[in-house]
Amino acid sequence: MEAMPLPTLKNGKPGIFFLDEVMSSLTEPFKFSLVGKISGNRSLVPNSEIYVAFARLGLKRSFDLRFLPRGFLILSLHCEEDYAFFWTRGQMMVGPLGIHFSKWTPEFNLQEESPIAPVWVRLPGLPIHLFNKKSLFALAKILGNPVKMDDFTADSSRSTFARICVELNVLEPPVKQIWVGWGDHTQEIDVVYEKIPGYCLDCKMLGHSTNVCYSHGKIPKPDRSKPADRSPPQTEAPTVPAPPEGAAPVIVPGPQP
Ligand SMILES: [Zn+2]
Questions:
Q1: N or C: which end of the chain has fewer CB within 10 A?
Q2: 157: exposed, middle or buried (C-beta count within 10 Å: 0-12, 13-18, 19+)?
Q3: Co-location of 98 and 127 in the same domain
Q4: Tens of pLDDT along 132-174?
């Protein structure tokens, strides 16, 4: 562990300032952490039952679950595979409760969702010898933190495009083209995003854009008597439809009546 900073004054107030390398070592244990927002009637499911539901998922490594106020929790995982398992699905059910996951960052607070989202990306025409985790993760790092490559890419059973999930800050303009090169050869590769979710700067929330937010009054509020949808209708055009992705969404049985 790095040496901890000493108190200093800023605008006459005492405090401590963590340098980047100290902060990196402090956040390292949380690098596979997600924030969960629980929706539904919390009184129906005690925390212990939510914990058991996670334990029954058969994760590769242990996990920590910390319950916070206002229906939030922090799920800390301890390997890349378990992290990708939750992050690429985005949500899970525990009986009548829904848990929606977002990225944990050191700046996390209960009022604002992080604008970092897992986004599936296609690289059409990528040479087949680059369809391996090391090369693909190295390429994907240009776009954002790589989370997972899909099964058809991993076993090279579909060679027309490589498909990988990366963490993107959706408030930043996406990279449209990258290149790979070796020897005298250079090749440009288009980057095709399957769906980049909107981020609302008013609600500080992923899932809809500011220009379609109800709080602007541009679109009417949905009828609450109809089945609930977490986010307002999307106006962003989805780029390409997502192919079926391995296992079905996580559904965990809840308490029996
Ligand atoms: Zn909004």
A1: C
A2: exposed
A3: no
A4: 999 999 999 999 999 999 988 888 888 899 999 999 999 999 9
Q: Ligand 1: distance of its center to the CA of 95 in Å?
A: 28
Give pTM, 2 decimals: 0.77
In this structure, the answer to whether residues 84 and 130 fall within a common structural domain is: no
144 occurs within a structural domain: yes
The domain tally of the chain equals 2
For the chain, the 3-state helix, strand and coil shares in percent, each to the nearest 5, are 20, 30, 45
Give SS3 for 89: coil
Q: How far is the CA of 14 from the centre of ligand 1 (A)?
A: 37
**Residue whose C-alpha is closest to residue 74's, from 104, 45, 53:** 104
Distance 235 CA to ligand 1 centre (A): 13
* 162 alpha carbon – ligand 1 mean position (Å): 33
Ligand 1 centroid to Cα of residue 211, in Å, is: 8
User: Does some domain include residue 5?
Assistant: no
CA of 219 from ligand 1 middle (Å) equals 11
Which residues span the domain enclosing 126?
Answer: 116-193
Structural contact between residues 42 and 71, judged by C-beta atoms closer than 8 angstroms: yes
Torsion region of 174: left, alpha or beta (phi above 0 gives left; psi -120 to 50 gives alpha): beta
Distance 154 CA to ligand 1 centre (A): 37
